[in-house]
């Protein structure tokens, strides 16, 4: 039996976006991804952003591969008693309250886009982005991760991240394709997920460095690199 192929994190780096050049790269990756998916019109401006980018409850991640912008995701927090007006609430407010209740803290992952800079490692890029989302959820002590995905992405998020479907397809403002709300109960499912995919875990020192520098180490705390086997469902 062949040993699993290693997918070293060394070719990837993950940072919080702060500099103007990084924002330009993020919005360009979003634009290319949305245009290829048919989510925005052909004559849309070649940089895609919205009002949530500048909100204090939002953090945007930029993943680079070999130094080049490759993928991005945005993480937004909502904490009781005053929940932030996150994008998913516009289409899924009833479903969020039904699944989580009114007192649950959660983060929403949105604006998740993988650009051509990932080459044939798009799935690996999504894992690294999700590691960043989980790290932010740890820092905010969130109980859930929510995300609204296209219907053709339901299987990926369900099989590989253990997320459950929380809604039917709904139209969302500004995008052509409907979205389905999915969620991960961190208290119940995170230990299971991190045992199956150790590379998604982040130890305390890495979290502290993330807060201090805006850079998240993509190395697994147990020294077990992400492998091709981890990228398979099951």
Q: How do the helices and strands line up, and which of them pair or pack?
A:
Layout: E1 12-16, H1 20-37, E2 58-65, E3 68-78, H2 87-100, E4 106-114, H3 122-140, E5 144-149, H4 154-161, E6 164-165, E7 180-185, H5 186-196, H6 204-213, E8 215-216
Parallel strand pairs: 4-5
Antiparallel strand pairs: 1-2, 1-8, 2-3, 3-4, 5-7, 6-7
Organism: Usitatibacter rugosus
Protein name: N-acyl amino acid synthase FeeM catalytic core domain-containing protein
Domain N-acyl amino acid synthase FeeM catalytic core: 26-185
CATH superfamily: Gcn5-related N-acetyltransferase (GNAT)
Task: List SSEs in N-to-C order.
Answer: EHEEHEHEHEEHHE
> What gyration radius follows from the Cα positions, in whole Å?
17 Å
Poorly predicted sequence stretches spanning 5 or more consecutive residues: 1-7, 222-231
CATH topology: Aminopeptidase
Strand content: 15-25%
Number of strands: 8
Shape: globular
Sheet/helix structural class: alpha+beta
Number of domains: 1
CA(first)-CA(last) distance = 19 Å
What is the highest CATH level, the class?
Answer: Alpha Beta
Please give the count of helices.
6
The CATH architecture category equals 3-Layer(aba) Sandwich
Largest sheet: 8 strands, mixed
Instruction: State the share of residues found in helices, binned by percent.
Output: 25-40%
Q: Identify the strand order in the major beta sheet.
A: 6-7-5-4-3-2-1-8
How confident overall, as mean pLDDT?
Answer: 86
Protein name: N-acyl amino acid synthase FeeM catalytic core domain-containing protein
InterPro entries: Acyl_CoA_acyltransferase (IPR016181), FeeM_cat (IPR054597)
